[in-house]
User: Which sequence fits this backbone?
């Protein structure tokens, strides 16, 4: 499970990195904008980083190429099939006394410790505790604070009204060298040190303006969003850089509001420097303090720079900025990394030795293109041409082996695809070495608890059951069930059906196997391309007569479908040629487990009295329904 968590984390980190890098690029375009606009942009960026995982799950995807080493390869399937299961009938055979039905879960197959999830949770807990400790520090200061004098309260109310603040703002005074700070959203509180509350009026007015600016701008909410983003992405340096940028711009935006109320820049800058020398924020304090040494130098330069834009946010600016950030987050959230055909990272360059001048230059045949080979293989598999499809898929597997190595996950996935191809054609003996080799490679790379092991494990379990190795089949089926938590995954449902078949042989059906789930799966055959288009043929009706069957070959059950008592209907579209033979055959409603191939093989051997148009034989399209039923 640890490996799976790391694999799933890579696309998310890639998206968050891309999103924050795009925001940084956008800020470079807006470098002449006011600090308020740029702070809003970075606050929206931190909120967008939290929204990217949600947007990734709800928005439609569009693919962009990335290096194959960064994202694990995933195959696509052609058909989506609904198959309805039923409880197998009980056998007359009775189990031996003391016999057990379900395999005991070996200790070696139990789930491992999810170290990646534990490490993330610990990091998030540390950042979250810092925020909570900061809240505790401020709560302690508030308990010790005293109400401000009537003059301070009156001045605060006057400035709050001028700023358009409708909330009631409480002002408290604290003893000691504590910097002025603001806390809260619905009921904001301003904490003033006694030295400021009882000092000169001009400095008190500037400090109150700054703290009220935080309240008017809703900076405490953006502060909490930034803390949440840092807790979730505590390991991502760009998130911490975004938070630092937002913090500096937040203070500068409040400074701009103070200057907009007529406070002289030199006087205000001098007050900030003096306050930073005399006062300091408590450790772990999560409030909005006016004097932070980390941002003081840049703030003073910005205050004294008369060329700076100091405009406040307008509804139009807020709408445009938030819309831009939302669209950017949606675009990044909808992206899906697609494998690009690029060299493996870290591979050494290939040395080429030039031939002697006297020798003619050798004619080197161009290397086959992997994408073209896989496309041709998929088309052959969709056309039910086993020999051509297997040859091309073998070629693609060898190309992956040469590029990524014989122990790579990419090569293992191609082996599984080859095994699935032979399994579809009920040639299980030829499928076995591919599944066995893929299982060995994936276990070495990802460990015994990797969910990707389910496909080869299920095949080996089904094969063991066919060979009457019941104990081995039970153990392998149980491993499949242990790997996946989703009950609707194809291997899980089929493994449960396999265990049910074993239980039926013993005359028992445990309670947890009596109600087998509906099996919903994409086809396991590995056909990844659309079927070839039908040839030119007529539809029955009007002057076109219906062909009649002369020779009908009954399809055979695949061994796997018979083993798990799988039933259903395959709908086939075929072209009946003018000579009565069967031309193009396409599966319109798939069933899976090799039954589609059995249907196609049978229909290709049928012979018809051809349909006619105006008395002349013509090619006619026909739909053939093949019902697979077990008695």
Assistant:
């Amino acid at each position: 499970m640890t490996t799976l968590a790391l694999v799933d984390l890579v696309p998310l980190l890639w998206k968050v990195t891309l999103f924050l890098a795009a925001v940084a690029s956008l800020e470079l375009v807006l470098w002449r904008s006011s600090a308020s606009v740029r702070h809003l942009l970075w606050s929206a960026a931190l909120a967008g980083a939290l929204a990217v995982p949600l947007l990734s799950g709800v928005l439609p995807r569009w693919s962009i190429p990335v290096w194959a080493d960064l994202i694990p390869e995933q195959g696509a399937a052609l058909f989506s099939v609904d198959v309805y299961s039923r409880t197998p009938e009980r056998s007359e055979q009775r189990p031996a006394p003391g016999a057990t039905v379900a395999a005991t879960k070996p200790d070696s197959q139990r789930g491992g410790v999810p170290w990646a999830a534990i490490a993330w949770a610990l990091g998030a807990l540390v950042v979250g505790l810092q925020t909570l400790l900061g809240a505790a520090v401020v709560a302690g200061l508030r308990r010790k604070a005293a109400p401000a004098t009537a003059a301070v309260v009156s001045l605060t109310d006057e400035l709050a009204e001028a700023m358009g603040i409708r909330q009631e703002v409480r002002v408290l005074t604290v003893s000691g060298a504590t910097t002025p700070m603001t806390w809260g959203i619905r009921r904001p509180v301003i904490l003033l040190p006694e030295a400021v509350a009882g000092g000169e009026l001009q400095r008190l007015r500037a400090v109150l303006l700054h703290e009220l600016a935080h309240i008017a701008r809703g900076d405490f909410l953006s502060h909490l969003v930034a803390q949440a983003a840092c807790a979730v992405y505590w390991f991502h340096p760009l998130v911490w850089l975004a938070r630092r940028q937002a913090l500096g711009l937040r203070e500068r935006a409040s400074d701009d509001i103070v200057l907009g109320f007529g406070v002289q820049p030199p006087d205000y800058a001098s007050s900030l420097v003096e306050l930073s020398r005399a006062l300091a924020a408590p450790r772990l304090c999560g409030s909005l303090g006016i004097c932070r040494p980390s941002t003081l130098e840049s703030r003073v330069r910005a205050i004294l720079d008369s060329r700076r834009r100091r405009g406040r946010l307008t509804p139009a600016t807020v709408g445009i900025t938030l819309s831009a950030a939302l669209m950017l987050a949606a675009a990044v959230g909808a992206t899906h990394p697609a494998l690009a055909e690029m060299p493996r990272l870290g591979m050494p360059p290939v040395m080429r030795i030039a031939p002697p001048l006297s020798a003619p230059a050798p004619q080197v045949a161009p290397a086959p293109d992997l994408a073209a080979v896989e496309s041709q293989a998929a088309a052959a598999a969709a056309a039910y041409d086993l020999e051509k499809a297997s040859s091309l898929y073998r070629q693609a597997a060898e190309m992956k082996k040469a590029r990524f190595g014989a122990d790579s996950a990419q090569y293992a996935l191609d082996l599984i695809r080859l095994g699935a191809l032979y399994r579809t054609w009920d040639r299980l003996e030829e499928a076995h070495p591919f599944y066995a080799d893929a299982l060995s490679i994936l276990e070495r790379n990802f460990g015994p608890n990797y969910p990707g092991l389910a496909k080869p494990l299920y095949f080996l379990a089904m094969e063991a059951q066919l060979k009457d190795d019941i104990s081995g089949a039970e153990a392998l089926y149980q491993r499949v069930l242990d790997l996946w938590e989703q009950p609707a995954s194809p291997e899980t449902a089929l493994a449960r059906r396999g265990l049910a078949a074993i239980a039926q042989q013993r005359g028992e059906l445990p309670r947890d196997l009596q109600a087998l789930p509906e099996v919903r799966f994409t086809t396991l055959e590995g056909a990844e391309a659309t079927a070839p288009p039908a040839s030119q043929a007529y539809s029955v009706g009007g002057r076109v007569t219906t062909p009649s069957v002369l020779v009908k070959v009954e399809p055979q059950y695949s061994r796997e479908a018979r083993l798990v008592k799988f039933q259903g209907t395959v709908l086939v579209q075929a072209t009946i040629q003018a000579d009565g033979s069967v031309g193009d055959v396409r599966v319109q409603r798939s069933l899976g487990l090799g039954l589609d191939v059995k249907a196609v093989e049978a229909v290709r051997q049928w012979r018809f009295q051809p349909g006619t148009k105006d008395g002349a034989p013509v090619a006619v399209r026909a739909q053939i329904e093949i019902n697979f039923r077990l008695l």
Summary: Confidence is low (pLDDT under 50) at residues 1-7, 66-112, 338-359, 511-534.
